[in-house]
Specification:
Helix content is 73%, strand content 0%. The protein has 267 residues and is mainly alpha-helical.
Length: 267
């Protein structure tokens, strides 16, 4: 039985250990499925098993080399299932899933609390991690080549008509860099794209043309998804740039520094 007393450090993430024991019993019976679903849909599983996932976060925060290597092994094992799911996807959805895989595996090299012993453990798994990274990068390259032409053209036409190319930070870019920026917006997670559009001044530009925020949010929604039922996702992602979402579902604010860095490197 896992108990709080085994940890010397105070939990960073709240855990109700009475409820944790019940969740732990359920998770233990279906561990492989839990790990797979935690990779694919972390927000949902954090809601279903809040105490267990917070316990995992605490373990990673105070990770010993043993716990870290277990996390790496579990992640690599889960991605075997992940590959099969990605195989059946197509277009932007497939690209987004592949980039999630790349970001997760890359995290083990960029984790900033590594001790010397932890770095040595990562080296033991470096070949396997890089092998999967190479696989996903090749899959990403192939997926971008096969994005349906009509989807690519619809996105570019929609964003062109919205006045995107009139933005100062876009207008100063050389033609091939404008194309690269469009490709980045089109293939990235929506949270990243909303943060980038905000950084470029796109929403302020639209405010000078349209009367309401709802109208603006709907225009941006239609750029990325012509079949979207409403503008809720864009609205909440924009709100997260001002006030972070405490539930952690809408995370555009987490990309603020990344989009600024990307743009500066692009120039």
């Amino acid at each position: 039985m896992i108990d709080k007393e085994e940890d010397e450090q105070e939990d960073i993430y709240f855990v109700d250990y009475e409820k944790f024991r019940k969740e732990f019993k359920e998770v233990k019976e279906n561990l492989d499925d839990f790990l797979l679903c935690l990779v694919e849909d972390p927000e949902t599983y954090e809601q279903l098993y809040p105490n267990y996932t917070n316990h995992l976060k605490n373990k990673l925060y105070y990770s010993s080399p043993t716990n870290l290597i277990m996390s790496i092994n579990n992640c690599l094992r889960a991605f075997e299932y992940y590959k099969e799911e990605v195989f059946y996807l197509s277009g932007i959805q497939k690209i987004n899933k592949i980039e999630e895989a790349i970001n997760t595996l890359s995290m083990f090299f960029t984790y900033n609390k590594q001790s010397e012993r932890e770095r040595n453990f990562i080296k033991l798994k470096e070949t396997e991690i890089n092998k999967q990274l190479s696989y996903w990068k090749e899959q990403l390259y192939q997926a971008k080549l096969t994005v349906p032409k009509e989807l690519k053209e619809r996105f570019e036409d929609s964003i062109y008509k919205s006045g995107f190319y009139e933005l100062g930070k876009v207008n100063i870019l050389k033609p091939h860099l404008k194309i690269k920026l469009i490709e980045k917006l089109k293939s990235s997670d929506l949270a990243f794209s909303i943060a980038m559009l905000d950084y470029l001044g796109f929403f302020k530009y639209l405010e000078n043309i349209h009367n309401t925020q709802k109208e603006i949010n709907l225009i941006v929604t239609r750029i990325f998804n012509a079949n979207a039922k409403d503008e809720t996702n864009v609205k909440k992602l924009r709100n997260s740039l001002v006030k972070p979402d405490t539930k952690g579902r809408y995370k555009a604010n987490e990309y603020i520094e990344e989009v600024e860095r990307y743009y500066k490197e692009l120039r």
